[in-house]
Amino acid sequence: MNVENTVVTILKNVGVQLQDDYMDIDLYESDLIDSLQLMQLITIMEEKIGITIDITEITPDIFKSVRTITEFVQHKLVQ
């Protein structure tokens, strides 16, 4: 599984409109994601990727950009 592609697909499915240079764009500062989309993202990632995300892991640092989300998911997959 290509984690980055999966994350990007899920973000697009919840309505996040990513620009071409999406890897490091701050999703919050750019107003690309809101709290409802974040919760949808988390739910779909848990279902599609098969990871469990604890409430304490839902932080702005982890869900800041495509890169940070991808790194988080990769870390969860090896646990």
Secondary structure: helix percent:
40-55%
| Separation, N- and C-terminal Cα atoms | 16 Å
- Tally of individual helices: 3
Please report the total strand number as a whole number: 0
Query: What proportion strand?
Result: under 5%
Rg for CA atoms = 11 Å
Q: Provide mean pLDDT, rounded.
A: 95
User: What is the ordering of alpha helices and beta strands?
Assistant: HHH
Q: Which structural category fits the helices and strands?
A: mainly alpha
Contiguous uncertain segments of 5+ residues: none
Largest sheet descriptor: none
Q: What is the overall shape?
A: globular
Q: What do these coordinates show?
A:
- It is a single chain.
- The protein is an all-alpha fold and 79 residues long.
- The chain is built from three helices and no strands.
- It has helices at 3-13, 35-49, 66-78.
- Helix 1 crosses helix 2.
- The chain is globular.
- The two termini are 16 Å apart.
What's this model, at a glance?
With 79 residues, the chain is an all-alpha fold.
List keywords for this structure.
79 residues, mainly alpha, 3 helices, globular
Secondary-structure blueprint of this entry?
Layout: H1 3-13, H2 35-49, H3 66-78
